[in-house]
Design brief:
The protein has a single domain, classed as Arc Repressor Mutant, subunit A (Orthogonal Bundle). 69% of the residues lie in helices and 12% in strands. It is built from 5 helices and 3 strands; from the N terminus they run H-H-E-H-H-E-E-H. The chain has a 3-stranded antiparallel beta sheet with strand order 1-3-2.
């Protein structure tokens, strides 16, 4: 089970690693978009856009459906919760580290 979760997390991080894919996800927050609409504004070929969509789809971040001749893309944010859960454990580390740094800086500033 842990291996499955790790693989899903790896896929989500891989999908998020490219700025074009992050921008596409941002554009999907407000509404579903057709593949044509989501492709606008990028100087990428159709196959490149399709590859980006496949990467996001395999990570579970989007769902594509076909209505008539139009392919629609919908955001599926659920996998992002796993990223947030994973990062929470590091937030605790940074909170403690930053608190220690604050204490140290206050201590040395009082010595001056």
């Amino acid at each position: 089970m842990a291996k499955l979760i790790d693989n899903q997390l790896d896929n989500v991080f891989f999908a998020l690693s490219h700025p074009t894919r992050r921008q596409m996800l941002d554009r999907l927050i407000d509404s579903d978009l057709s593949v044509t609409e989501i492709s606008k504004g990028y100087n990428s070929s159709g196959p490149t856009i399709s590859k980006h969509l496949r990467v996001m789809e395999s990570a579970g971040l989007i769902q594509r459906t076909k209505r008539g001749r139009v392919n629609w893309v919908k955001l599926k944010p659920e996998p992002l919760k796993g990223v947030g859960d994973w990062m929470t454990q590091y937030k605790k580390f940074w909170d403690v580290s930053l608190s220690s740094l604050d204490t140290y800086l206050n201590k040395i500033s009082k010595k001056k």
